Amino acid sequence: MSTSETTSTETAKPQPKRVEHFTVEERAARGKAARAELPRKVHGEWEPTAHRTDPVELLEEQAASRVPELVPIRYGRMLVSPFTFYRGAAYLMASDLSDGPRSGIHTQLCGDAHLSNFGIYAAPDRRLVFSVNDLDETLPGPFEWDVKRLVASFAVAGRDRGFDAKTRNKINTLVSAGYREAMHTFAEMGNLDLWYSRIHVDEMAAEFAAEASAAQKKRLEKNLAKARSKDSLAAFSKLTETVDGEARIKGDPPLIVRLDDLVPDGTEEEAHESFRLLLRSYRRTLSGDRRKLIERFRYVDAARKVVGVGSVGTRAWIVLMTGRDNEDPLFLQAKEAQASVLEPFLGKSEFANHGQRVVEGQQLMQAASDIMLGWIRAKGIDGEERDFYIRQLWDAKGSALIDVMEPSAMLVYARLCGQALAKAHARAGDAVAIASYLGSSDVFDRALAVFAERYADQNERDYQALKDAADSGRITVQSGL
Predict the structure, then answer these.
(1) φ/ψ of residue 124, rounded to 5
(2) How far apart are CA 149 and CA 40, in angstroms?
(3) Considering the domain boundaries, does residue 406 fall inside one?
(4) How do residues 425-464 score in pLDDT, each as one tens digit?
(5) I need a labelling partner for 73 at 20 to 30 A (CA). Which of 205, 255, 377, 437 fits?
């Protein structure tokens, strides 16, 4: 999002279609028919095709639409380890999955369902919940694509942690088992019960504590306390300073660059005015009550901020607003929404605005979503129109500390992520058909555990390819950021 001359919102929704209502028996039969067409054990197969695209070429293709000076930071973060590479390689895996078997049973996909894209956040009633929480790539597609990406992420993370093959296999199998067993539970639920179902962090923590060591419990308590304290007031304390009596975002180039430093001298006030216009457009995508709430805050400042691994290079902004005074801040994040990495393989989104695609997908897959979720389209001074979705920057958000996770903790986390993904898929798709396809045995679980290790091998080859590209000078890398 840059200074803009015009703004617009895409609020129109597709024309409603007739909804077919099948019986439970018909839905279950659909799942069994899909299983007869594509046996579950087939999902364990993985070999790169003869025409597989060079992985570095795919990453360079993504880089073409990103902020040029930030792309080397993305490469630097991906090259920290095969695990961080995997986090940034959703496009590569989507390309690979498109050449593999498909069940034909679709739901709303996360599109990048690796284990670090699950976490905790505050629901509107302020209770902490656990769910998939990064849906930049969301799009409808075969349910197993998300499950495969999730299980493979545990295989890659297990290697990163130094777990042996037997331990990794147990963890990998448990991800899919957690998904399958939860899907059977959701398939038995009434529609409203399923819709209201949440994974509450208090319950999750109690389950974890029953099997955790004292050190693990202490780490969990510390992590939860940190998440609970992560709000706009904490962001205000960390990210701002006072200049001439007014709060301002602190610059930390190249990771945080203030709007004033990105525009030509003498155009700063015009740039800030464009942000005020953007916020007015964004407000129109909120429900009436939430629009009234955000109208109580005034715009103060904005800055471009580098976030994540895979998202580095896309345009992400933080926006400081204040309410009654500086003790009542609101930090928003406006994140560029490009076409999903799944689009080239599954078709275009039904939504013209990719920000709306992300918001609609998130609200569909999460039992409770950020009250500030909205979207805009903005034309920048470079003349390019881009889509964004907007949410709170910090709202009691927290994620698992993968780099210190012991095998016993990762086993609990594996099942939990599988359950959370099943809940998201069940809300958005046909839980009965998916459960029927998966069956009650562990055939699918064992197949995906095999797939995960095979794909982890491929991930290491692709990681090496990126390292070779860096060593040869084909790509420029900026590390340590």
Answers:
(1) -55, -25
(2) 16
(3) no
(4) 999 999 999 999 999 999 999 999 999 999 999 999 999 9
(5) 377
Residues 236 and 110 in one domain: no
Q: Parallel, antiparallel, or unpaired: how do β-strands 329-336 and 256-258 relate?
A: unpaired
What domain range includes position 287?
4-10+230-392
At residue 9, what is the residue type?
Answer: T
Type of residue found at 114:
H
Claim to verify: residue 88 and residue 202 sit in the same structural domain: yes
Q: In this structure, is residue 180 part of a structural domain?
A: yes
Q: What does pTM read for this prediction?
A: 0.93
The secondary structure element, H or E, covering residue 218 is helix 214-228
Q: Which amino acid is at 73?
A: I
Concatenated DSSP letters of 140-199:
EEEHHHHHHHHHHHHHHHHHHTT--HHHHHHHHHHHHHHHHHHHHHHHTS-HHHHHH---
Residue 477 is assigned to a structural domain of this protein? no
Q: Is residue 303 a contact partner of residue 249, using CB atoms and an 8 Å limit? A: yes
pLDDT in tens, 356-384: 999 999 999 998 899 999 999 987 656 68
d(CA 434, CA 143): 8
CA dist 182 and 422 (Å) reads 6
Domain boundary among the residues 392, 409, 439 is at 392
